[in-house]
Amino acid sequence: MLQLFLVGIGTGNPGHLTREAEHAIRGADLILLPHKEDNKAELAQVRLALLQDLSVSDARIAHFDMPLRRQQGDDYGCQVDEWHDAIARRWQDCLQAHLPSGTGRVALLVWGDPALYDSTLRIASRLGLGSGQVQVVPGITSMQVLCSAHGIALNAIGAPFLVTTGRQLRENGWPQGVDTLVVMLDGQCSYEQVTEPGAVIYWGAYLGMPQQILLQGPLAAMQQVISSRRQQARQEHGWIMDIYLLRRDGAVAVGEVDKLRSAG
Fold first, then answer.
1. Could you tell me which residues come within 8 angstroms of residue 114 by beta carbon, excluding any fewer than 6 positions away?
2. Where does the record place the Tetrapyrrole methylase domain (predicted)?
3. What confidence tens digit (pLDDT) does each residue in 46-69 have?
């Protein structure tokens, strides 16, 4: 029977791998390794470095090219569905080529955690595998690494927080009833449109990697600073993965005020 392990690998730092993740990778007969367009080759190298750190032989790695997502038109949901179908077909092609018997343990390395703002589980559902054939190995999320790197707590005492996307922030603004937002998947710098008085931002890119960048401060003062640094980093590396946390002024803890003053 074919078993597919979706393995959360954190943000690319080998130290983020859990013992469970190491066990799943070492025990896999085949590891699917996606490659995106040339300007993101460094991402594949990060995954390869993790595998080399675990002494995984090249013979157990199946490389495949990620299809591009259609981005014309306003049918975002349809675009994503088409893209997921195309990715699933690439997986199936790899499995048929490398495991023609249809049996074996397969691992796919997933940034962060497969259950948080990631579509790997939805893509895996297209393979028609039965109950128990797909297993998720949780990983450290960029949200956790962001807060740890800045030395802040994710939530204020007894208060909720919301994890959302740049698209949602742009289209709907700051949600009511919550003072702390974690914003992911924001290639459009949506924080530039936020006018919440006194809001602060904690931003990070390439978290956990040697090129990690951290910026923090009052949002109004940091909007253009972050956008400029982000553009510079993207040009330098050819890609960028970033995340940020926004807080309303009244939710900033005393310790965070001291950090912001020091940063300023």
1. 6, 7, 8, 120, 121, 136, 137, 138, 139
2. 4-221
3. 889 999 999 999 999 999 999 998
DSSP string, 188-218: T-GGGG---TT-EEEEEESTTSTT-EEEEEE
* Per-residue pLDDT tens over the stretch 208-260: 999 999 999 999 999 999 999 999 999 998 889 999 999 998 776 545 655 55
Q: Where are the domains of the chain?
A: 2-137, 142-263
Q: How far apart are CA 195 and CA 198, in angstroms?
A: 9
Beta partners for residue 104, in sequence order = 2
What gap in Å lies between CA 186 and CA 193, rounded to an integer?
12
CATH architecture of 142-263: 2-Layer Sandwich (3.30)
Quick one: fold of 2-137? Cobalt-precorrin-4 Transmethylase; domain 1 (3.40.1010)
User: How many C-beta atoms lie closer than 10 Å to residue 14's C-beta?
Assistant: 15
The amino acid at residue 39 is N
How much is the pTM? 0.86
Cα–Cα distance, 14 to 49 (Å, whole number) = 8
Whether the CA torsion 113, 138, 142, 22 is positive or negative: it is: negative
Can you tell me which residue has the tokens 């924001």?
A: 186
Strands 200-205 and 213-218: antiparallel
Question: Can you list the alpha helix ranges (DSSP code H) found in the chain?
Answer: 19-26, 41-53, 76-98, 120-124, 142-150, 166-172, 219-237, 254-263
